[in-house]
Structure to design on (563 residues):
């Protein structure tokens, strides 16, 4: 386990050394969303009875920040190592492929949680928040970060350039997070888009995470967690299979 | 030095065993049935022109690439089926000058130790830093180091787990003379302590001085494999320069003639012992030797001769 622990620690230290870029910058960006949307829409929109728009928005933004940063952590670290050639330092030692996977995913979870915690704490300055079901909140937070951590590894393994990496981030991850109900409840959408949203796993993450705060959600949190859990399992198995085969690493 | 190994005891387990390795890259047949055995404690050179397959072979050995066919073992551990144990006993200095811009030299060495399962390795890390002249750079970020310093860090990284088998893929490429000498002094010391060293280099005088056995690769095939001494004796020509008075070479010596200019004749002898035949023939013909210069064969000449034969 020393190898796994060392790689996990190295990944934590990597993002910590550039925390202005990896923690503070996404924190500020997310808070700007909060500032602008809450200022514009607070008086006009009430999604759940008794829950103001700013309070509704905060869990969605926290989850969005967690997902994007968990993805960014594993994907950027791995693509940089591949492009710079220093991935060889991880390929020469006797690290097992599952240790590689576990270390990258765990570090992605930590970064996601650190950024999410920062956004959540800053959100308290805007509006007081209560936690109706903290365990559900924690489960969705962990599942979301881990899922995106694994997705980040797959993307970085596949990508042959920074451009391809950015394409996935901008054309897949970003739309999926923005169209998952961060800023709205899917019940406010027309039936077609409402039905389509149910094929977006990020929707269940945001919805379930929000349930942890308000005890209200668009779908049952148990159903949401089983869908998210299945997605995480599928992504993990795919990532482990790619790492075991040495896909675009060992040749 | 701490961590001295004794790998010199007679053993049936080869340090490196390569059997019938083929490697295809799309239409390129990069390795064509390479077989090699390196004994424990050897200082072994893998030579060949660019594109001969040296780095491909090393990458297969290190698990960075997979053979299309054939098997490789390091200290008896198959590099595919028993990859964790094979990697534990192997240290590789890669050819490319790679580094991780985020971290200092010491951090890199601690991480590398951890990846090999070593928690507290600071004493050995300090010794490596000292022996490679990196002590004052230990806390420097690797990105600010010069090329030579980065190369030393790569060597240190390959040695953090005290591997019994060390592979150096062109470790002195682009490195100044001073570093080259200190690096070889350190590697020689490791070899004396029992570590098996496999070296690839384009500096053939390095291979000649350091290595007891040499394999030459060309177009993915081993075209020569012998002790350095045998290669020099069997393939190297002893070069003899003579100034003769009168300017005449006896007919019996004509087959040895490599070049002639005025009174100066250059003869190429297959063995040093043929010099006696030359002197006897000159005495018999009453030709006076005014000047004589004998040059021993070097590995560069042997290399060129073997590569030339393989082309022919």
């Amino acid at each position: 386990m020393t190898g796994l622990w060392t790689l996990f620690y190295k990944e934590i230290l990597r993002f910590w050394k550039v925390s202005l870029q990896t923690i503070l910058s996404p924190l500020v960006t997310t808070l700007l969303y909060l500032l602008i949307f809450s200022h514009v829409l607070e008086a006009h929109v009430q999604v759940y009875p008794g829950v103001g728009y700013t309070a509704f928005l905060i869990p969605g933004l926290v989850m969005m920040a967690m997902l994007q940063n968990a993805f960014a952590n594993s994907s950027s670290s791995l693509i940089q190592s591949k492009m710079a050639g220093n991935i060889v330092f991880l390929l020469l030692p006797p690290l097992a492929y599952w240790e590689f996977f576990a270390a990258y995913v765990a570090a992605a979870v930590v970064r996601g949680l650190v950024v999410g915690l920062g956004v959540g704490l800053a959100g308290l300055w805007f509006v007081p928040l209560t936690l109706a079901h903290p365990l559900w909140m924690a489960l969705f937070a962990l599942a979301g970060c881990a899922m995106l951590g694994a997705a980040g590894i797959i993307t970085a393994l596949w990508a042959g350039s920074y451009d391809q990496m950015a394409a996935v981030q901008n054309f897949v991850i970003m739309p999926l997070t923005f169209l998952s109900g961060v800023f709205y409840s899917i019940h406010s959408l027309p039936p077609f888009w409402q039905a389509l949203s149910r094929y977006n796993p990020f929707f269940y993450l945001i919805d379930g995470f929000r349930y942890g705060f308000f005890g209200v959600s668009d779908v049952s949190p148990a159903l949401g967690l089983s869908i998210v859990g299945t997605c995480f399992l599928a992504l993990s198995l795919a990532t482990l299979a790619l790492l075991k085969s040495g896909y675009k690493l060992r040749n | 030095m701490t961590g001295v190994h004794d790998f010199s005891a007679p053993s049936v387990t080869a340090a490196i065993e390569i059997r019938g390795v083929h490697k295809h890259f799309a239409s390129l047949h990069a390795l064509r049935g390479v077989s090699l055995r390196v004994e424990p404690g050897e200082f072994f050179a893998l030579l060949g022109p660019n594109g001969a397959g040296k780095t491909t072979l090393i990458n297969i050995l290190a698990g960075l690439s997979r053979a299309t066919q054939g098997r490789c073992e390091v200290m008896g551990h198959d590099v595919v089926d028993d990859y964790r144990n094979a990697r534990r006993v192997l240290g590789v200095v890669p050819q490319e000058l790679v580094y991780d811009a985020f971290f200092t030299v010491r951090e890199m060495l601690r991480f590398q130790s951890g990846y090999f399962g070593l928690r507290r390795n600071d004493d050995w890390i300090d010794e490596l830093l000292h022996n490679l002249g990196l002590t004052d750079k230990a806390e420097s970020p690797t990105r600010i180091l010069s090329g030579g310093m980065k190369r030393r860090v790569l060597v240190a990284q390959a040695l953090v787990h005290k591997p019994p088998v060390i592979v150096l893929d062109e470790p002195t490429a682009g490195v100044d003379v001073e570093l080259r000498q200190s690096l070889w002094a350190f590697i020689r010391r490791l070899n004396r302590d029992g570590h098996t060293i496999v070296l690839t280099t384009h500096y053939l005088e390095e291979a000649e001085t350091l290595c007891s056995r040499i394999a030459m690769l060309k177009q993915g095939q081993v075209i020569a494999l012998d002790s350095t001494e045998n290669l020099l004796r069997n393939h190297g020509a002893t070069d003899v320069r003579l100034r003769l008075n009168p300017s005449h070479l006896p007919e019996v010596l004509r087959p040895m003639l490599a070049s002639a200019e005025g009174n100066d004749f250059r003869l190429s002898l297959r063995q040093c012992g043929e010099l006696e035949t030359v002197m006897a023939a000159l005495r018999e013909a009453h030709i006076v030797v005014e000047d004589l210069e004998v040059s021993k064969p070097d590995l560069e000449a042997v290399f060129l001769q073997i590569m030339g034969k393989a082309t022919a």
About this structure: Chain A has one domain: 2-245.
